[in-house]
Amino acid sequence: MPLYPERVAEQLEANKAEIHRFTHDDTRVVEVYRDRLRDAVTESQAAVRDAVGDDRDSYPGAVPTREWDAVSGPVVPFDASVPWDNHEAVNEFAADVLAGVSTVAADGSEIGPTREFTVPLGLVQTAWCRNGHSPSRDYEEDVSMRLLVPADLTEDRDDGRRYVDGQAPAHERYREEARTIIDCIERFADVTPPPVVLYDGPLVPSFANTFAPDVRDEYYREPMSMVLAASEHHGVPVVGYTAGSGSTNLAKLLRRRYPDALGDRPFVADSRILDPFIDHWGDRSQLFSNRQDGAVDALTTQYRGEDYEFWDDVLFAYLNVPGGDALDRVELPGWVLRDDRAEYVFDVVRAEAGVGRGYPEILQQADANAVLDTGAKNRFLALVQEFADEHDLPIEWDAKALSKERRRR
Q1: d(CA 345, CA 325)
Q2: If both were cysteines, with which of 4, 98, 283, 305 could 133 make a disulfide (CB 3.0 to 4.6 Å apart)?
């Protein structure tokens, strides 16, 4: 059924008062959060941590790091960009920072489960690339793929029947991306200076909390725990990058610290709270320890004979590299700050985002290498059909799917 634009326009017009009221109220709430942030930064790190709770059983959203007492305000300014007046200055900065530095990224894509056939199949494709940023064009890339068979895509019911899990390819993709990142960390661990590995997404998979416990742990928490452990073990920084983040860790912290002013207020995005404190390209917020929920507690694993846990050791900050309306979120393992590597990492991320006009260039390349578009799906279906015909396998088009395909031609 087509969309009827005139009816949508009528509905928008009929509800403009409610939309206006929501946005007006939201703006006033944001200002309250900003005022409380101004109050909070006048206190010491110890006072804030004591007030909100920083033990393992406490989830104040975020707790300050050592940067809290070292910086006068919620933002770490990037003074180098103050005199810049064109993108060429960004490019020059990026060229200087990235010269001889390896940046690495991995990304994945998936197809399926196929509903066109009577047999469910799928495919996960993962790509990685490394740019050594040297005059010799030191660049590497590779792609791996894995066929998802019915055993990967179906689950047993209590009544003995099997059903297709539509989310299974996404679960498999996440785990394969993590494995690829670990492989890249191990592969390039001896490169000097240390490479920076960028991952498209958060390092704390709170989004997986809604999944069944076995899926959440096997496909999300354990793989990411291994990524963090490999990063610390080899001294290779891994960066979780989220463009235009709507996270509310700081909002939760401020609500916990000032319950009288904010206790019954709705949450707002951290990036909105921080917006007036950001003045220039490359400015970032302070680093905070992520204490949003129990997902971070579950980041524990064993890697190469050593035990690792990260309940208070995944950090985040917000970065201003315009390309969208909201600040981007950068997550780091805690060892990066302890080893005084944070500014090195942030400069590399700034440079990559500058080259990519607001989003890290190396992540864009990994995405381009990994993506499976509609054309790829059609080719996959054709290959499956050819394979079935060649081997006389009973893989047939589902009648309903075939009917839809014919109607859309």
Answers
A1: 23
A2: 98
Cis peptide before 169 (omega within 30 of 0): no
Co-location of 353 and 377 in the same domain: no
pLDDT for 403 equals 45
Distance CA 270, CA 262 (A): 14
Helix, coil or strand: residue 314:
strand
Q: Taking the alpha carbons of 395, 396, 402, 406 in that order, is the dihedral positive or negative?
A: positive
Residue type for 43, please? E
Angle at 358 between CA 353 and CA 363, to 5 degrees: 55
What 3-state class would DSSP assign to 111?
strand
Task: Determine the 3-state secondary structure of 28 from DSSP.
Answer: helix
Please give the structure tokens belonging to residue 5: 């634009």
Question: Are 265 and 340 within one domain?
Answer: yes
Distance of CA 361 to CAs 222, 325, 366, Å?
28, 19, 9
**Quick one: 383 and 362 in the same domain?**
no
Report the Cα 27 to chain-centroid distance in Å: 27
Q: Residue 378 is part of which domain span? A: 373-408
H or E stretch at 240: strand 238-242
Dig out the tokens for 303 from the structure: 């890697």
Mean pLDDT of 154-173: 86
The structure's pTM equals 0.90
| Residue 18: count of CB within 10 angstroms of its CB | 9
Confidence class of residue 6 from pLDDT cuts 50, 70 and 90?
A: confident
Averaged pLDDT, 291-319: 96
Kindly tell me if the per-residue pLDDT of 157 is higher than 80.
Answer: no
| Overall residue count recorded for the chain in this entry | 409
Sequence letter at residue 328: D
Please, is 273 exposed, middle or buried when counting C-beta atoms within 10 Å of its C-beta (0-12, 13-18, 19+)? buried
